[in-house]
Amino acid sequence: MVLAAVTQEVAGGRPFTQINSFLETKLPQAARSDKPANSGPTQAPPGQEGTKSPLDSHKAGAPSQAPGCGTRRAERGSRAQRPLGLKTGGRRAQEEGPGEPPPPPELALLPPPPPPTPATPTPSASNLDLGEQRERWETFQKRQKLTSEGAAKLLLDTFEYQGLVKHTGGCHCGAVRFEVWASADLHIFDCNCSICKKKQNRHFIVPASRFKLLKGAEHITTYTFNTHKAQHTFCKRCGVQSFYTPRSNPGGFGIAPHCLDEGTVRSMVTEEFNGSDWEKAMKEHKTIKNMSKE
Predict the structure, then answer these.
(1) For 276, what's the count of Cα atoms within 13 Å in the CB-facing half-sphere?
(2) What is the pTM of this model?
(3) Residue 30's pLDDT is what?
(4) Contacts of 165 (CB under 8 A, 6+ apart)
(5) Cα angle value 247/249/252 (rounded, 5°)
(6) How far is CA 142 from CA 15, 126, 137, 178, in A?
(7) How far is CA 115 from CA 112, 118, 241, 278, in A?
(8) CA of 85: how far to CAs of 74, 88, 178, 289, in Å?
(9) C-beta contacts of 9-12 below 8 A and 24+ residues apart
């Protein structure tokens, strides 16, 4: 209400001095005093002067300092007593990042791993203990024009294939070359089946372990028919079949004797094989099926 009256006086254009006098007449004494009207002490009702409320007791026993001041002072004191260099969980410790975690107790007790064992070098023929045979060995290598590995292979083959000789051969153009260990006296089969008759496929049979293709695998192509067990391989450049895989011995090779190099064949014996009646001929023959076995 007083505010509405003041607003009307100001709107009417009355001076501020008159407005001040107006306020003094309108406002009560309690509103214009600097202190609240009830700022004095509260008097207790008659008969209750000696009693105190629980709130008064709490005020009387409360410490003079504000709550929490002692706790903050104790924290400041504890921080002051911390040794230098001790990292805390504050911003500085977060900026420095976590340190390297200690290893687990069970890993800390394990001994360090041993260093890797160096590989033992494979001795070559040059540092083998040949004793008095060294000069003979080196002379053999030079005479045969072989490496140490080649000379060892030749001697081992000769020992393992006792009574056999190493034959070499190949196709007409020389793209395909092979070696085979067989007897110097060859047992030749002359087959009259439909394909062997047309290409005059006379051959002797050896186990696969005694045959080695020296070169020309990329020049070889294969023809099969009927049961596809026989692999008729030949050079795709000159067309010559110097060896193949026979149906009678799929675990071995049939070698054409007329494709061998000269000098290793001592004799040849030819046996006719009735391949046109193949099942009956295989049943009646006693040795041909075992010729590819060791």
Answers:
(1) 5
(2) 0.50
(3) 46
(4) 181, 182, 183, 184, 264
(5) 120
(6) 139, 14, 9, 23
(7) 9, 9, 57, 66
(8) 21, 9, 82, 91
(9) none
Closest CA to 269 of 202, 206, 189, 187: 187
- Bridge partner residues of 186 (DSSP): 268
pLDDT in tens, 229-239: 889 999 999 99
The answer to whether residue 120 scores a pLDDT higher than 90 is no
Closest among 168, 176, 275 to 211, alpha carbons compared: 168
Taking the chain, what is the end-to-end CA distance rounded to the nearest angstrom? 131
Tokens encoding 208: 């696969």
Cα–Cα distances (Å) from 112 to 68, 115, 231, in that order, read 55, 9, 60
* pLDDT tens string 187-237: 999 999 999 999 899 999 999 999 999 999 999 999 998 888 889 999 999
SS3 220: strand
Q: Where are any strands of DSSP class E within the chain? A: 165-170, 177-182, 185-191, 202-207, 211-215, 220-223, 232-235, 243-244, 252-255, 267-273
Q: How far apart are CA 151 and CA 147, in angstroms?
A: 6
Q: What is the pLDDT of residues 129-142, one digit of tens each?
A: 888 888 888 898 89
At 184, the pLDDT band (50, 70, 90 cuts) reads very high
Q: How far, in Å, are 114, 127, 135, 149 from residue 130 at the CA level?
A: 36, 8, 9, 15
